[in-house]
Design a protein that fits this description.
Elements (H helix, E strand, L loop, with lengths): L6 E3 L6 E3 L4 H13 L3 E6 L2 H4 L1 H7 L8 E4 L8 H13 L7 E6 L1 H13 L5 E6 L2 H7 L4 E6 L2 E8 L4 E4 L9 H18 L1 H8 L9 H18 L14 H10 L10 H20 L3 H14 L10 H10 L7 E9 L2 E9 H14 L3
Parallel strand pairs: 2-9, 3-4, 3-5, 5-6, 6-9
Antiparallel strand pairs: 1-2, 7-8, 10-11
The structure holds nicotinamide-adenine-dinucleotide.
The site of nicotinamide-adenine-dinucleotide has 29 residues, from α2, α5, α6 and α7.
């Protein structure tokens, strides 16, 4: 097995394996669990169809494992679904020595990880991410949780998976909108990491041309290094919020009547252009880097202007964000590419200017 066929990232307390030849490692890892309390497989309606057959082909010993498939999408990150998972585990006789295998995107790993950590006060879980967001981001880092009262990730816990196995082949069936969403996170990671990761990404012309496996590895490796420094998101890990403060606000207002529909990836991409402007304006990011970062984003995303009349709605959403005081919003910005800076306050006027910059920069 060539090294790049199965890379082991060994920075955290649990191993992350990635590459087309992960299956021997997976088999060896899963065997004791199968012999002990059994392996329970959680999927959603898409991953049961597209990914489970691939998994079973590579690991036939899982053929008799109990299976639960939840509906695809964010609505499954709910307490009702968690109850369903707990009941399914109980009815299947799962004990403390059983293992939950999350086969899916961020929704399956967030919900399944939370259910596993709370079932009988905690059983092990393993993530096999099948979406690009899952592979580049969500499966690693131990954040699990569900949405409550309409608030994303309101309830959850930090609970590490026992291992993560990233098989790039799963992405072949992932719809394009979800591939693009994943690229927003990869661009963010590269901008935060700088150095070779950024230089490599900067050479890519767009999604069709991207060395996806290599970029996933770089993103996961970088995320692991931040988590190692700050597992509970109190300091260094907060850098990962870059682009997400304005991005989340754009995504939230896109659900209001009359506003333009925007995907999660587009929202984060637009948020990163705005926050790159704030980085330049407030944190000293050189203009050349502001331009470089905006250009990279625009190579991957066809972004639409932000209606200036919605700026008030955006500020309202950001003001509800727990990170802020009344007058100012706190941002994770970049002093330079590769040099994050945390808790940078920006006033309402600064945010308005960043929206103006964005509308000008996308050239529409
Ligand atoms: N815990 C974390 O650190 C973390 C980080 C980032 C995002 N998240 C969470 O992850 C979620 C978003 O992640 P996501 O985009 O993976 O969501 P998702 O799990 O909903 O997956 C996106 C869509 O792709 C489908 N899908 C997944 N893999 C597929 C495949 N191989 N072939 C065909 N279809 C496939 C899914 O069924 C779903 O419809 C959000 O809930 C977000 O809050 C968590």
């Amino acid at each position: 097995v060539k090294q790049e066929q199965c890379v082991k990232i060994d920075i955290l307390d649990y191993p992350v394996f990635a590459g087309p030849e992960i299956w021997d490692e997976f088999d060896a890892f899963i065997n004791p669990g199968l012999k002990a309390g059994g392996v329970f497989i959680l999927t959603d309606v898409n991953t049961v169809k597209y990914c489970l057959p691939v998994l079973l082909e590579h690991v036939p010993s899982l053929n008799n494992s109990p299976l639960l498939s939840i509906p695809a999408g964010e609505a499954s990150k709910s307490i009702e679904k968690v109850e369903e998972i707990w009941a399914w585990l109980m009815e299947g006789g799962a004990g403390r020595d059983s293992l939950l295998l999350n086969l899916g995107g961020g929704v399956v790993s967030d919900t399944g990880g939370f259910a596993a950590a709370t079932y009988k006060r905690g059983i092990q879980h393993v993530n096999i991410p099948t979406s690009l967001i899952g592979q580049a981001d969500a499966a690693v880092g131990g954040k699990t949780g569900i949405n409550v009262a309409g608030v994303k990730n309101l309830v959850g816990l930090f609970t590490d998976p026992s291992a993560v196995f990233i098989f790039p082949g799963f992405l072949e069936t992932l719809p394009l909108t979800h591939i693009t969403s994943g690229f927003a996170e990869i661009i963010k990671s590269a901008a935060l990491a700088g150095e070779k990761f950024w230089i490599d990404l900067n050479k890519v012309n767009g999604i069709d041309d991207a060395p996806v496996n290599q970029l996933i590895l770089a993103a996961v490796g970088f995320k692991c290094s931040l988590i190692k420094q700050d597992p509970y998101d109190l300091s260094a890990r907060k850098a990962l919020n870059f682009g997400h403060t304005i991005g989340h606000a754009l995504e939230s207002i896109s659900f209001l009547p009359g506003n333009m529909v925007i995907t999660h990836g587009e929202a984060v991409a637009a948020g990163m252009i705005c926050e790159a402007f704030l980085s330049h304006f407030l944190a000293g990011m050189p203009e050349k880097e502001l331009d470089e970062l905006s250009s990279v984003i625009l190579r991957f995303f066809d972004l639409q202007p932000i209606n200036p009349e919605t700026a008030g709605q955006l500020i309202n959403v950001m003001n509800h964000d727990k990170k802020n005081d009344r007058e100012r919003v706190l941002f994770s910005l970049l002093e330079r590419i590769g040099k994050p800076v945390l808790n940078e306050p920006a006033g309402i006027e600064d945010i308005f200017r960043s929206l103006e910059f964005y509308n000008h920069r996308i050239g529409k």
